[in-house]
UniProtKB/TrEMBL annotation:
The keyword Signal applies. This is Lipid-binding SYLF domain-containing protein. It comes from Edaphobacter aggregans. InterPro entries: SH3_domain_YSC84-like (IPR051702), Ysc84_actin-binding (IPR007461). It comes from the Bacteria.
Length: 237
């Protein structure tokens, strides 16, 4: 009887473990799709979006889809998203991130607010590779410019490591994130890659993109291509 109970407990534990793994993988795949949708929206709303030259100059892009649902002020909220960085061969495989804590200047009373963070220089890139850092603590951040083109009078090209945006109902707005902590989402990493992978390995281009992430990889490539074309047309004017 005791042996039967132990076998039943073992089978139940194994079944629950497999169910969790399947659920975790599906949740991660859905996040990849939602992040792809946010990337498409960047180029589809040029007058209310992120300027092409800002996207074109970013070293890394971090998307946290549906950061908040419901009508409340975000304070110490938690979200999970996707990061990718430029490499010599193109964009890196997606790395899974979580972000939480701090004081966030997000909108009130809006559903499905998306967060976009653009890492603009090598200092910001190194912070991201560390797998955990604090915005405005370890890394400097500022609300990003919005519109078809960034104003020549802004200093977004100078010392700011990260430009931050929120999106709701198709429109982007620059926001401030003070004290929020960005770190690797280890559970989602294991669910998609099958084992632990470091930010350093993934974002440096040392880890191939799994088949389940190819839709996101296509979306990031299309976003970058559109930004490059837009920049070239602007330079000719």
């Amino acid at each position: 009887m005791k042996m039967t109970s132990m076998l039943l407990i073992g089978a139940f534990t194994l079944a629950n473990g497999n169910l969790w793994a399947a659920t975790g993988q599906q949740d991660s795949i859905e996040r990849l799709q939602m992040s792809s949708d946010v990337l498409h929206s960047i180029m589809n709303a040029p007058d209310k979006g992120i300027p092409e030259e800002v996207v074109g100059g970013a070293k890394c892009i971090v998307v946290v889809p549906h950061l908040v649902k419901g009508g409340f002020v975000v304070g110490g909220e938690h979200g999970r998203g996707i990061a990718t960085c430029r490499t010599a061969e193109g964009w890196s495989s997606p790395a899974f991130v979580s972000i939480g804590g701090g004081s966030w200047g997000l909108q009130i009373g809006l559903e499905g607010v998306d967060l976009v963070m653009l890492v603009m220089n090598n200092q910001g890139f190194q912070h991201l590779l560390s797998s955990k850092f604090q915005i405005s603590g370890d890394a400097s951040a500022a609300a990003g410019p919005v519109g078809r083109h960034a104003s020549a009078g802004t200093d977004w090209k100078l010392n700011t490591e990260i430009l931050t945006y929120s999106r709701s109902r198709g429109a982007f707005a620059g926001i401030t994130l003070n004290g929020a902590v960005v770190q690797q989402d280890n559970d989602s990493t294991r669910a998609i890659y099958g084992r632990d992978q470091t930010f350093q390995a993934i974002l440096s281009g040392k880890v191939p993109a799994p088949k389940s992430t190819l839709g996101f990889m296509k979306a990031i490539a299309e976003t970058n291509h559109a930004a490059t074309i837009a920049e070239a047309r602007q330079d000719k004017k």
